[in-house]
Amino acid sequence: GAGVSQSPSNKVTEKGKDVELRCDPISGHTALYWYRQSLGQGLEFLIYFQGNSAPDKSGLPSDRFSAERTGGSVSTLTIQRTQQEDSAVYLCASSLGPPGPGETQYFGPGTRLLVL
Amino acid sequence: QKEVEQNSGPLSVPEGAIASLNCTYSDRVSQSFFWYRQYSGKSPELIMSIYSNGDKEDGRFTAQLNKASQYVSLLIRDSQPSDSATYLCAVNMFRSGAGSYQLTFGKGTKLSVIP
């Protein structure tokens, strides 16, 4: 079946502008995750959604970052007033159930964000 | 203290050799461990998962887990140039503050298989 999809694949923006990144998880997957990967760095957890529960926002680096998930499916990550240090690849993943022993996350292709 | 540690490499092995990738983790009660492969400019792709002590084999890949030593490794037999990538170790850790598990990644080991 179809995997996790993300759009856009690349985004170039000017410092101070807002950007929206979209993620469409694997059909039937209840959990959705956002990560950030900066050049030469590991994956940094940002936020996690499980069904209709309140999201785990513990990884969001500042209040300029927010995310929502509508109808338990598609998610949008919004970065307001972008800064150059926000330049990174933003990866979305989904899993069938909540994160836990044995639960596997599958990644989308990512959105490469460049803030000029 | 870093929670998942990997040697960043690069690790260079000749074609046909065994590549050995290592990972240590800090959370003693972790139960799920994953290896992802990431080609340059691509997203991580799951190649192995392991939950019990010992070895788990899948084709040319073998994952090894030693919970007492908090150590997990990945062996790639008969290494091919197409195996050249960054290998990410990931550990499912319980975050008491968040009240949920979170997949924590190492920074990855870059593997180069030389033809």
Structure description:
The complex is a heterodimer of chains A (116) and B (115). With 116 residues, chain A is mainly beta. Chain A contains no helices and 10 strands. Chain A has strands at 5-7, 10-13, 19-24, 31-37, 43-50, 65-69, 75-79, 88-95, 106-107, 111-115. In chain A, the strands form 2 sheets. In chain A, strands 2, 4, 5, 8, 9 and 10 form a 6-stranded mixed beta sheet that branches. Chain A has a 4-stranded antiparallel beta sheet with strand order 1-3-7-6, with no helix packed on it. In chain A, a hairpin with a 5-residue loop joins strand 6 (65-69) and strand 7 (75-79). Chain A starts with a strand and ends with a strand. Chain B has strands at 4-6, 11-14, 19-25, 32-38, 45-50, 54-58, 61-66, 71-76, 85-95, 100-105, 109-114. Helices cover 0% and strands 58% of the residues of chain B. In chain B, strands 2, 4, 5, 9, 10 and 11 form a 6-stranded mixed beta sheet that branches. Chain B has a 5-stranded antiparallel beta sheet with strand order 1-3-8-7-6, with no helix packed on it. The interface between A and B is medium-sized, with 24 and 26 residues.
